[in-house]
Design a protein that fits this description.
single chain; Arc Repressor Mutant, subunit A; Dna Ligase, domain 1; 2 domains; three-stranded mixed beta sheet; 6 helices; WH_DNA-bd_sf; transcription; DNA-binding transcription factor activity; Fur_C
Amino acid sequence: MESRIERIKKQLHTAGYKLTPQREATVRVLLEHEEDHLSAEDVYLLVKEKSPEIGLATVYRTLELLTELKIVDKINFGDGVSRYDLRKEGAAHFHHHLVCIECGAVDEIQEDLLEDVEAIVERDWNFKIKDHRLTFHGICYRCQEKEQKEEHE
């Protein structure tokens, strides 16, 4: 984790920002909960446990800065809540998500499934793509298994 924080510190410095203690506390929470797709409020509550002096506005500003610098991706799964997801190091694009419409679980797909689609869009529409997001909404394997088990009982 320390090496990742050091690399984020360098990204901030390159963009003319410092890794203040408040920013570092926010980054640490995001790293510790990398799989959780936390809302700003979730991040704030977790930051507050370790650093009670940090306010909600500071966490919001930090999340917006990290989003602007593409360290974090801001995502919305259709429930009206923005969530924050650390971008995988070295990733050219945002990763994809599978959102279960029954239990709300969010699973991630790390492979870039849209390289061919991007090439077609850039060629046929003369559109320079900078990033893309793909979210599938459906029923996760856990809910499907649960449903099958209930049908056989």
